[in-house]
Amino acid sequence: MKKISGISKRWFFGTFCVIAGIILAFAVTAVFLIFGYYYNYVEMTLDSRASDLVNSYFSQYITSNDDTFISGAVNFVEDFTDKDIMEVWVIDKNGQPIVSSSGFDVDAETQMPDYEFAKTSETDKGKWTGRLSTGEKVMAVTAMIPNVKGEYAGAVRYICSLEDVDSMLFFISLFIFLIAAVVLLLVLASGRFFIRSIVRPVLQVNATAEKIAKGDLSARVNTGGMHDEIDQLCVTFNNMADELSQTESLKNDFISTISHELRTPLTAIKGWGETLVQLGDSDPETTQKGMSVIISESQRLSDMVEELLDFSRMQNGKMQLNKSKIDVLAELDDAVFTLKDRAVREGLEVIYNVPHLPLPMYGDAARIRQVFVNLLDNAIKYNEHGGKVIILAEIKDDKLVIFFTDTGCGISPENIPRVTAKFFRANMSVHGTGIGLAVADEIIRMHNGEMEINSVVGEGTTVTVTLPVEVSEDNETYSE
Hints:
By secondary structure, the protein is of the alpha+beta class. It is built from 11 helices and 12 strands.
């Protein structure tokens, strides 16, 4: 037999057993009530016969001798109309049955517990349910017949067989328990179907998760199309698997890109180092050029390593800011000044128009400048010869809004939400690690600012940075 475990076990012992107990309790209670009802009905029928009519009938026979009482007993039994459903005895004052509606003599040794009860009862009646010497189950009610002297002239005993009643009650009980069993089977069947509809997808999700954990990122869960919570779980799981697969692909691309990006400056440094060793001091001009390349490529390596460290700190939530009061427009000026010559060398026109006044804010100067440099670097890298790099700034409602616009290749609409995600690169033909915008977005958010990207493929991209600043009256006048 298959062992029950997991959710099925919890449902079986936590729900089905409770339902089974309740149904069984109802069935047993119903049987007891029905038994009680029919037994009470038999008792009331017998009791109604043993009423005051007995006393009124025998009142004319209790004042005479015993023969007169016996004659009255015979008449009483002959006039009794319910001989087909019960038997009636008349008992004399000595406790001996003298006449029976069955027509047979009653054994003098017959036990009559109800008669004994009636003699001591305040109501002059006694009831007994039990089995006769023949094994037949009966219910008997005895009514005493008092005389004028306060003694008992005799008694009338009514006896009803319970065999037919018990047989009927047996079939009724069997029918009740059969219904209970059918209900339990229906509950069990529907419960098992419901549990299996839950367990199967969960087991499938678990099996698929194990496959993914072992490296099979193509594994997916088959959705049932029921549009319920379980189906939604499967859909969500598949979406997660898609994201993992995509992230894994991006990670592999990232590792490949980083390897290439690191190899390029290292190759240049190694090549010029070997060249300089071979030249010695024989060619000072070439030596100077080589040293410049080594320094430039070393700085490039340093910048990449620092960017990777920033990304690692951001992922671990350990990126910290050294905040103080800074002039944000001064940091923007430095970033533009740093990259303007490079843009011009690559055939780009730089348009720079910002308010020429101090604009204080509370922030980390190095990190803010890092963001500006990164955005300008992207505007240059993803631009084309003869294009433009436009930097505009304006003050709106205690906030500085800076627009970094280029006329380059642009970003497709489906990639715009992903450009700030880790490892993602919209254009694989351009050098870069793919984490610069992710770091920039995090820095802006840590300064309570916002960064928004709008782009049209083939026309260019605009990155809008909004930062909270301290606006003075002079700044407001200039803004207007």
